[in-house]
Amino acid sequence: MGPLQGMKVLDASQIMAGPYCTMVLADLGAEVMKVEKVNGGDDSRQMGPYVNGESTCFFQINRNKKSIALNLKTNEGKEIFYQLAKEADVVVENYRPGVTKSLGIDFENLKKINPGLVYCSISGYGQTGPYSHKGGFDLVAQGMTGLMSMTGEKGMRPMKSGIAVYDIGAGITAAYSILAAFIHKMKTGEGQHVDIALAEIGLPWFTWEAGAYFAEGTIPEATGWRHRVSAPYQAVKTKSGYMMLGCANQRTWERFCEDVAEKPEWLTDPRYKTNLLRNTHVSELEEDIEAVLMHQDTRHWIDLCEKAGVPAGPINNFAEAVQDPHYEARGMIQEVEHPLIGKMKMIGIPAKFSKTPGEVKTPSPLFGQDTIEVLNGLGYDEDSIRNLTKSGAVKTLEEKPILNKK
């Protein structure tokens, strides 16, 4: 039983940031009802690759949720949403600012029927400010915040991060912000509006860069495979490939020189005496280190580093990473049975709790698979559900039996 057992979340988001946030909450025990549009559902359902017609992109970040398909442009669909929102603790949405108001499902409207509601909006630039009307995308945010100017090699074309770092970062920021607002609600009974912007969530991560810029006006540039302020703290070449070497302090540098590279003379080399000097002469330092490492393969040097207490590790591709026995032992690779996909693996839950661990209970839902069950729970009978389906206000899985018959 997860720590969020009893929390009810109404998820009106799609693609990545919002669904990642609600998956985190669901993994930790919250009951998450995913509200999808009747015309195709969450847009990520149309993103491949597919297995038996089901999107594996959707599969990866929508586990532990139920799915109801509503047409929020109809009065009937809106009324069902209101009934669900009345009983919810949290609503998460990632429409462009202004859309929820036009649909009548904005915070101001919903707090009238549920004053304790925690309502989280995730958008590109937030609900206020001169850019609030713009649509937001991960790559645009990476460019705007300066991240792309710091990624890749100096003088080369700007490079994006290898993953959708701001989409996932927005989901994580939304999750902890919702929990903070929920704690406030538990203390006071008051709900509130949580405003998350993709273009903002990454800025606090630039700690060293902010320190240098606000102190000296230094504008950070791309450093490629090297760390911005520590050396050697970077990818280095060996006989068989590359590895990461992390001598982030003087003691690990000394251990590397003496016990790994067997080059004690580097300790008295005037270029390498301090971290600042090593960083200043990082190109020469890299050449000297690689001249030694080229005599043995990567595994040899990683083993020596581990024995000496020097942080080091392999540079895995994704397949190598997810097959690492450490991740397997920590439950970071899970496998579930999906009704159409069959058995499929997914990334597990990174937070470990001694008393209330999270759990992967169910795979991602089929489109609208829980519409009938939810409507039954709200008191709709068979005829009402058929009429709602016929009018386009809801979409159901036809093979699912309708209960609450007259």
UniProtKB/TrEMBL annotation:
Name of this chain's protein: CoA transferase
Organism field: Cytobacillus pseudoceanisediminis
Signal peptide segment: none
GO MF term set: transferase activity
Keywords: Transferase
Superkingdom of source: Bacteria
Class in the EC hierarchy, top level: transferase
EC number: 2.8.3.-
InterPro entries, alphabetized: CoA-transferase_III_domain, CoA-Trfase_fam_III, CoA-Trfase_III_dom3_sf, CoA-Trfase_III_dom_1_sf
Presence of keyword GTP-binding: no
Pfam families per the UniProt record, alphabetical: CoA_transf_3
